[in-house]
């Protein structure tokens, strides 16, 4: 009787283990962020990197038809790789390029921009990552195209490429 009980208990245990393994194999476990396009621009107050003055999103996103908000950091290798594309975007007068410096040392951020050039009309600081989260960002670099109605119309995850620039130019025409 005791042996039958142990066998039944072993069968239930193995069945349970098989069930858990089967469920975990069929679950992708991949994080898919929520869609970031066609969302209103979050309102925030931050500090400007070079002047240390407080600045609001209402002040930053004013006076242009399109805005590029780029989340970057000096310690981010892909941010360094995409920098020439941001420099090129900054030459387009119909786009205002804004930098959001993510969890970075201000001295390192300033050195990064002094070495590679500063494509940003305004660079704001996101010391704790809250502003990036409000935008729906979950990594860096990440870039958002925003229209004059303060709507996020396109997001680019990862570093900008030549193809990204072509896509942006088609959207803003």
Your description of this structure?
With 173 residues, the protein is an alpha+beta fold. The chain has one domain (39-172): Glutaredoxin (3-Layer(aba) Sandwich), CATH 3.40.30. Helices cover 41% and strands 24% of the residues. It has six helices and eight strands, in the order αβββαβαβαβαββα. It has an eight-stranded mixed β-sheet. The radius of gyration is 23 Å and the shape is elongated. The relative contact order is 0.18.
Which helices and strands, and how do they pair?
Elements: H1 2-26, E1 39-40, E2 45-48, E3 54-56, H2 57-60, E4 66-72, H3 77-90, E5 95-102, H4 106-116, E6 122-126, H5 130-135, E7 142-147, E8 151-157, H6 162-172
Parallel strand pairs: 4-5, 5-6
Antiparallel strand pairs: 1-8, 2-3, 2-6, 4-7, 7-8
CATH superfamily: Glutaredoxin
Taking the sheet with the most strands, its summary is: 8 strands, mixed
Q: Count of DSSP helices?
A: 6
Strand order of the largest sheet: 1-8-7-4-5-6-2-3
Whole-number mean pLDDT: 89
Core attributes:
173 residues, alpha+beta, Glutaredoxin, eight-stranded mixed beta sheet
Brief account:
The chain contains 6 helices and 8 strands, in the order H-E-E-E-H-E-H-E-H-E-H-E-E-H. It is of the alpha+beta class and 173 residues long.
